[in-house]
Amino acid sequence: MTLSNYNHQEYNSQVQSLLRHPQLDLLITEYPEEILLQEGMAYWGSNLVILEEPTEIEKMLLRDVLSEHRVIIQQEGQISVGTKDRLKPYQSVDAESFEKIYRHQSYQMLLELGFRTGV
Hints:
This protein is an alpha+beta fold. The chain contains three helices and four strands.
């Protein structure tokens, strides 16, 4: 199932349906600002939040990050990585560097959650 069409009236109900699926191990969602404003999120708590050039509305997602889990923020050519309470800034990050950091942090999170990977 794809949620890429962002149908406002069904988006959160589709996310909730996926969360109830008994074989679900991992759910990656993308929330458009309009849905955050109108409905909020369908769940609480995130193991990883990635924000690319976030607006103030999108920065609200940080409040629901579990305190020991990862945050990656790319804004104005800088990237910050860490937990919501302790972010380490990096200077002048290009798109390729951001992707490497994103992949590394995602991989580390999956390992910590007990996922086995073939990489």
